[in-house]
């Protein structure tokens, strides 16, 4: 099923996000679907939504679990900015954090490079993939309605649900409506050279600032104190000998 037209963007208050919307009950992955659509000629702002995914994707071949009907599972096709893919990922994470702060008044923070955290629990993950047909699919998974007890054992202690954290009922559609204008604004800002201002905001919401971490990436493993985002989007870590390292990509473990 899909809908298209001015009405959707008017409802969301967006210029690009929501140009066409595809809604699925079940799909392999909204990112894969968005990339297929892009190859077939879909335009920027196209959204793919699903109630549940059979092959939800995380980074590096990892998976993304959902609670059918309680998760926001959405991918948006955006024109890749002149900057690298990290900028889109960070912009989407910021949009999710903005939406959570605005709608629920919860202290959402961004964990480099692609997680949104509330009270030390991961409530959302972002995965930007592509390009295909000249566009990047920005996939966003948010745990909206449900409880961490419903999650598989390995995630029960780390995943968080917004309805549980906020102590009020909440639906995925409400989060999408809150998220869309921020995502739209940040993607437009990126395309217009507004990355420095976005990075400043992301730095203010840095979950890892001052925390002790181990980072694995590019064949290197470093333990030390996480600092901020470099202007390139890299994570800055200062090891115990005082040496500074920068990671363009990697996995972070809190110590
Ligand atoms: C991510 O990867 O966090 C990116 C997740 C992106 C999901 C969206 S949903 C819509 C779109 N379509 C897709 O197929 N994907 C995108 P990463 O940083 O690699 O984290 C993955 C890890 O997070 C897993 O290995 C689990 O440990 C954990 N995880 C899985 N599901 C989770 C959940 N619902 N809540 C919290 N943590 C989860």
SSE order and pairing:
Elements: E1 2-4, H1 6-12, E2 20-27, H2 30-39, E3 47-53, E4 71-78, H3 85-104, E5 109-111, E6 115-118, E7 121-132, E8 135-143, H4 153-156, H5 162-166, H6 172-191, H7 195-204, E9 212-217, E10 220-229, E11 235-239, E12 244-247, E13 251-254
Parallel strand pairs: 2-3
Antiparallel strand pairs: 1-2, 3-4, 4-8, 5-6, 6-7, 7-8, 9-10, 9-13, 10-11, 11-12
Short description:
This protein is of the alpha+beta class.
Structural account:
The N and C termini lie far apart (46 Å). The strands form 2 sheets. The chain has an 8-stranded mixed beta sheet, sandwiched between helices. The longest helix has 20 residues. It is 30% helix and 33% strand. The protein folds into 2 domains: 196 residues, BirA Bifunctional Protein, domain 2, CATH 3.30.930.10; 43 residues, SH3 type barrels, CATH 2.30.30. It is α+β, with helices and mostly antiparallel strands and 255 residues long. It is built from 7 helices and 13 strands. The chain binds biotinyl-5-AMP.
Counting DSSP E segments of at least 2 residues, the number of strands comes to 13
Q: List low-confidence stretches.
A: none
User: What is the CATH class name of the largest domain?
Assistant: Alpha Beta
Largest sheet: number of strands, sense, barrel closure: 8 strands, mixed
Mean pLDDT: 93
Label the CATH architecture of the largest domain.
2-Layer Sandwich
**Structural domain count:** 2
| H/E topology pattern | EHEHEEHEEEEHHHHEEEEE
Shape: globular
Bound small molecules, by name, code or SMILES, are: biotinyl-5-AMP
The share of residues in extended strands comes to 25-35%
SSE class: alpha+beta
User: Helix segment count?
Assistant: 7
Assembly of the depicted chains: single chain
C-alpha-based Rg, rounded: 17 Å
